[in-house]
């Protein structure tokens, strides 16, 4: 197990290193090179030269990469170009805000979706199953941001039941009840997407398991249907769902970014979009890396959890996949 | 006549497909005497497994259902029982083992847990007692180091070992009837013999009756008291092992026997095969269902279905060419062809 | 065992079968209709799939004929009549904040969405298949490198990567197809790789190699044909995903730029004038929803049609059938 953990962690570090190269290379592949991209527009050639020197842009590319990565590892995310604010100062608070939104939506949808999917797998094509597949189709085909806009128009503008946007009212910063009110709409929007996916996964995973030979064996033993489903099928069905939860993380984070933008939620996603429009590349690079770290850690945790629940996983070899 | 543990009469099992209802078994009748072994043989797709699953009433979980007939086990018709009542029979009075032992065991539980579960369900044992008996069961299926093995997961064991575990699980509650569906087909040849030997020994030890399904005539020769030959969902011949191997009466059985390499045939000769292939269940030919593949097919075979007719010795076959049934000297013998010919519908078989 | 004792001699006409006759009989027997034909039949029996296909064809028709169908040019300003409600004279769905006809703009927008959707799916399926096939077939270090790249691409949320690239290189409609394809080929690559890993162990690959068929021919002729079904399904479902991504990027004003128009861009405008004209946000979103729904229905329909285990029997019929014929207790 320890060996597996170490190997799997090293793999994650490698992936992160490659991502940092990718991000860095992208800036340097931009038309006109990094100087063009990174410097504030409208500078005189002399001033540009000085600023380029200050930013270290006149060094060779590998040296620049190493110093950037070195700074990153020490928690120095660089400065914004326009106002020279440390990137960390604007980035870190948004990470927390995004986490609040994502975790709320994620937990809510998991709690609803997994029991629902399991229930549906035992009553295929029943009313509940048809409802959930209708929701799934909607969830997969609907632009999340559009759903957000529609909800805003009805619940905030037309009815004034819920706040239109932001995380708190201006005069109620830090008030928990106020936060909950503000969470309702964005969490609904985000959950719909997650829900659509998870009901489908848990249902199909469960159906797959219910068709296995060992379920027939369990029935041949004379076990009640309840025991067959909850004892024998459920544990096996949850195993692949764990992997999917890990693999889906990037999509979820992406969805959160759009939702944040619609509801003006002060999270990483909104910051990213704002900074993309403002062309603040050091912030963009930092956010890309931070998000990737989250995703890679999420995948790592999912893999470890998988190895814990599935006795078939051989820690020593085989890259952590089931036999 | 010995007491019968299982009597299946006219059991018909259907599946609904895109092309309409398909009969996976068509009026199958068979008997198992107490303490005896009945082998059901036939190619894959002949309805052997469906018959077994129907008796267990597991067929409903596989998408099929029983449309006709009865299966009397200890005087009670299993077909009429509710699934709830079946829970008390499955695993405790009738047990079943399946073809692929590796996939028949739940990968996330240790083998000990899986055997103990059976005991706890039917015998209401304490956890500790169930575990003790599980280890004991593993010992009785000749697994070395049963205490250690009981704590292992199925994927840590070989196929033969898994099949022993499956057998231990099936026999844990001392069933009266064991249904074994191709118990050795997924195993290596050397292991096959061991498992078969084990099954025969355990049958004596536990004083069970056995319904063994196989496509392998060699297996049937080794273990069977009686043999039922099925083809395309119906019984075509039934008799003692000696009847089937020494006096086969149906051309299909003869074909099956001739296709065993090296059993009786001349060495160096061409390996015998029955021409053609088993028809899909959605497209059973009219008349005798074997006629398109039968070397002896006559015009009658193409239109009329032959009845299953019984000779005095109890050997039955469904073939128009076979006139052994007419040897019965008693007047008005219902099995005489003249009185028994019914067109289009398979006559009921009467048992004395 | 002497069958002669029990059975009469084999009738003359059955005795000898010339080899040609046997072969002929066998081919007739062993020729059920192919999987594609069965699939097509099953597809046509699936009402959702057919409805999806019809809707999709309608939208393709609209995109092709937008020039003739639209009552106004998409960018014709009419600053006198901004934000007209739906049903106003001459404007079926009203006008936007600049007085442009919403209905006409919706029709024209379908061009961008469908073009982007199908091109992205096309490019990423080709790239993904190529990479997946090569890495699955050859294995070894080629496979290791390819799969590390896939891991990396999977670890950055594709929306973030899209935004980053478009922010650096500038938002242009023509870039967008490449950018979206760049971040969506990995799924196909993994799928194809998995398929090829299994397929390359097959006997017929060894047989083909033994008679001197080149690796490339095996990869792109023999094996590709055998994994085409899942590729087609993924490609179809990818169209919907690409349409959604396009709308998201355009909504963030990093995608389609004015004067071109797309549903995402219309939504972006609509949110800006949300207070004055709430209905404007409804139509473009509905269009996206319907098109993506249609594509997904088609994709799911193809998947089910090519899945031999899936039947097209509705549950209701199955229940009725059980009630009518089942003799067993409940």
Automatic annotation (TrEMBL), chain A:
Pfam families in alphabetical order: BPD_transp_1 (PF00528), BPD_transp_1_N (PF19300)
Subcellular location(s) per record: Cell membrane
Superkingdom field: Bacteria
Gene3D superfamilies noted in UniProt: MetI-like
Topological category with respect to the lipid bilayer: Multi-pass membrane protein
GO biological process, one term: transmembrane transport
Record-linked InterPro entries: BPD_transp_1_N (IPR045621), MetI-like (IPR000515), MetI-like_sf (IPR035906)
ABC transmembrane type-1 domain: residues covered: 95-302
Gene Ontology CC: one annotated term: plasma membrane
Spans through the membrane: 90-114, 134-156, 176-199, 237-263, 283-309
Alphabetical keyword list: Cell membrane, Membrane, Transmembrane, Transmembrane helix, Transport
Family the UniProt entry places it in: Belongs to the binding-protein-dependent transport system permease family.
PANTHER family (alphabetical): DIPEPTIDE TRANSPORT SYSTEM PERMEASE PROTEIN DPPB-RELATED (PTHR43163:SF6)
Protein name stated in the entry: ABC transporter permease
Organism this protein belongs to: Cohnella endophytica
Taxonomic path: Bacteria, Bacillati, Bacillota, Bacilli, Bacillales
From TrEMBL, chain B:
Principal place of residence: membrane
One GO molecular-function entry: ABC-type nickel transporter activity
Database matches in SMART domains: AAA (SM00382)
Keyword field: ATP-binding, Cell membrane, Ion transport, Membrane, Nickel, Nickel transport, Nucleotide-binding, Translocase, Transport
Sequence segments annotated as region (Disordered): 323-352
Protein's cellular compartments: Cell membrane
Pfam families linked: ABC_tran, oligo_HPY
Domain (ABC transporter) ranges: 6-257
Gene Ontology process terms (BP): peptide transport
Catalytic function, reaction form: Ni(2+)(out) + ATP + H2O = Ni(2+)(in) + ADP + phosphate + H(+)
Record's bilayer topology term: Peripheral membrane protein
PANTHER family for the chain: NICKEL ABC TRANSPORTER, ATP-BINDING PROTEIN, OLIGOPEPTIDE TRANSPORT ATP-BINDING PROTEIN APPD
Recorded family membership: Belongs to the ABC transporter superfamily.
Subunit structure: The complex is composed of two ATP-binding proteins (NikD and NikE), two transmembrane proteins (NikB and NikC) and a solute-binding protein (NikA).
Name this protein carries in UniProt: Nickel import system ATP-binding protein NikD
Organism in which the protein naturally occurs: Cohnella endophytica
From TrEMBL, chain C:
InterPro entries assigned to the protein according to its UniProt record, in alphabetical order: BP-dependent_transpt_permease, MetI-like, MetI-like_sf, OppC_N
Biased composition (Basic and acidic residues): 12-31
The UniProt record lists the keyword Aminoacyl-tRNA synthetase: no
Gene Ontology cellular component terms for the protein in this record: plasma membrane
Name of a matching Pfam family: OppC_N
Keyword Cell membrane: yes
Domain ABC transmembrane type-1: 110-299
GO BP field: transmembrane transport
Transmembrane stretches, start-end: 48-70, 112-137, 149-169, 175-192, 231-254, 281-299
Taxonomic superkingdom: Bacteria
Membrane topology: Multi-pass membrane protein
Disordered: region residues: 1-31
Main location: membrane
Subcellular location: Cell membrane
Record key words, sorted: Cell membrane, Membrane, Transmembrane, Transmembrane helix, Transport
Similarity comment: family membership: Belongs to the binding-protein-dependent transport system permease family.
PANTHER family: D,D-DIPEPTIDE TRANSPORT SYSTEM PERMEASE PROTEIN DDPC-RELATED (PTHR43386:SF1), OLIGOPEPTIDE TRANSPORT SYSTEM PERMEASE PROTEIN APPC (PTHR43386)
Protein name as catalogued: ABC transporter permease
Native source species: Cohnella endophytica
